[in-house]
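Mods, move this if it's the wrong board.
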Amino acid sequence: MIGWHAIRRLLDEPRILKAEFQAIKELHDEGLDNVGVMLPFIINVNEVKKAKEIMRSVGLEPSQDVDFGIMVETPAACWIMEELCQEGIDFVSFGTNDLTQLTLGLDRNNSMIAKHFDELHPAVLGEIAKVIKVCQKYGVKSSICGQAGSDPEMAKFLVHQGVDSISANIDAIQEIRHVVARVEKKLMLDAEREELTEKGS
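Not the wrong board. Structure tokens:
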């Protein structure tokens, strides 16, 4: 999880990243417009800048030719989200497995401490809320992937925060749809009541 992988390896071996971007360009040139780029395990803005330079070297302009975003898997990414948005990204996607492990300082695959793994821990939720708020400020879309999106409690929290989309496991889709619909309806009703109250006063 914290080894030589993701964006840190890709930038150490830029020929691999360039090849990946070239593959995306070929899809783009074939007319596929539903393909984007998402950088994994970001911890600083320079990683995004360097990746963009390599992307441009194959003839792809980030955010113009294809959507360009990052995974939010590290506490570092959460705390520099303002700078990341200012650098220019279209979307973020929460990888809550890694974010939770790194925030709580534990390995969920270790049976001795797996019981402490909690994606609903206040620290994790605080990071997620912070990121969504900053993303809303800059018009950057936010989403969640992985197991956490299938948890009704997490879904409720995300809708309250204003997340743009939730990815759920196939066996949880219907339940999460119902949860999202209920929470959104309640938020709308609360907003209408508040508006009526303001007009009455």
